[in-house]
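ARCHIVE CARD
CATEGORY: sequence design from structure
SOURCE FIELD: tokenized fold
FIELD CONTENT:
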């Protein structure tokens, strides 16, 4: 039974990682486009980061609910999306803290700071969504 669990878990976390990679590309693209449109104003980096987050969030919910966790959200979309958003908002808080700290206090490039945040927040989001949002009853 443990081997079956490990096999399923391995596939699931790989799928979660792939969805995360696609969502991260979307997030980075929006972050950089928004930052460019704001003329690179460092005081608005938080806003560009939030826009990127929103794009990644929407993609992540859709792909994770249907492909990664294969969860039937029919009739539960508002509640499940809200749960996904709560987990992700905590992740956003961590992301903002990491990006702003490393970019502003340590003068690290915003993309490098964002990469550090992505690694940390990946694990928070995976377990939060697996154990709460898409928990099988």
């Amino acid at each position: 039974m443990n081997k079956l669990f490990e096999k399923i878990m391995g596939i699931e976390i790989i799928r979660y990682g792939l969805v995360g990679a696609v969502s991260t590309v979307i997030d980075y693209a929006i972050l950089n486009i928004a930052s460019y449109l704001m003329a690179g104003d460092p005081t608005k980096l938080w806003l560009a980061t939030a826009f990127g987050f929103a794009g990644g969030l929407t993609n992540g919910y859709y792909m994770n609910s249907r492909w990664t966790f294969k969860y039937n959200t029919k009739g539960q979309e508002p509640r499940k999306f809200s749960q996904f958003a709560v987990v992700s908002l905590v992740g956003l808080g961590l992301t903002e803290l990491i990006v702003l700290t490393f970019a502003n206090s340590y003068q690290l490039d915003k993309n490098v700071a964002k990469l550090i945040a992505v690694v940390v927040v990946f694990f928070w989001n995976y377990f939060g969504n697996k154990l709460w949002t898409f928990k099988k009853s």
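CARD ANNOTATION: The mean pLDDT is 90. The radius of gyration is 16 Å.
SHELF: design records, drawer C
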